[in-house]
Amino acid sequence: MKVLIMEIEIDKIGSNDYYSEVLAVMSNYSKLVKNPRQKIRGLNSQAIILTGIALVFLVIFAALYLMSPGTSMYLYVIIIFSIALILGIIYIFLINRRISKFKNNDSSKKLIIEDEYVEMHIGDEKSRLNFKDMQWIILNKHSITFIPKSEGATLIAVEIKYKNQVIDNIKEKQIIVDNSNLY
Question: What pTM value is reported for the model?
Fold first, then answer.
């Protein structure tokens, strides 16, 4: 017998930080399954930092090349960092485009927690994750993510503002990992 424990109507639009953090959780899935107690930085900030590092090194090696133009090694390094800078800019653009796609989804959203599973409804689509298939529930700075045991399964995420409602209605307290104090 299914027992409906909770149903939360989710705001249609989350913050950029929330979506960036959820993308970072998705990209760090295998690390989080093994060690859920780690700080997750949003993908956007990671991409900006790496692109900034590429820009700094590009400027340094360009200056070194201008001081001694006969050294071809500097030219090779400049080409490598130029490519890294271009790829970094493209990566930032793709992340922002993905976040915009999430934000522009105006379908109604709700999270349902029942005795045996968590389910997210977005418009007509449903994603379900059974508690027996769940590795962790991770509370981060901007998100709560329900991490499945197997990589191919659905990852469900909601904003951290629903923290109290979610925690109060989860019976499997041992799988909750609160990383919010890491930020």
Answer: 0.80
